[in-house]
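User: Hey, my collaborator sent me this sequence without any context and asked if I could get a structure. I don't really work with proteins. Can you help?
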Amino acid sequence: MNCSRERLIRAYDVKPDGKSVGPGRVFFQYTHPDKGNPDGLKCDVDGRVYCTAPGGIWVHNPDGSVVARLATPGHHATNICFGDDDHKTMYITMIGCVSRIRLNTPGVASK
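Assistant: No problem. I've predicted the 3D structure and written it out in structure-token form, which is a compact way to encode the shape of the chain:
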């Protein structure tokens, strides 16, 4: 779960019952000076986390470490989703436009 106000993502471990979660912990705290706050959040099939945040879309490993930042110069990314039949196209909504990018790894399909 992300918190735009605090500019962070929190993670919660699912308890053995599969229905409840334990206490939250900080997964990643954004301190980058570019405009934007964490908002849209999705995962790929390898467990990486994609989040719209300062300056574009940030890609995190399952431990929270940063893999990359997909810059969206001149546009504030607000949300993302994986699409097309193979879920390898990421659609990005930004203030004033929608863009897409092909990825090597498919995203987790939305239900």
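In plain terms: The first strand starts at residue 2 and ends at 3. You can pass these tokens on to your collaborator as they are.
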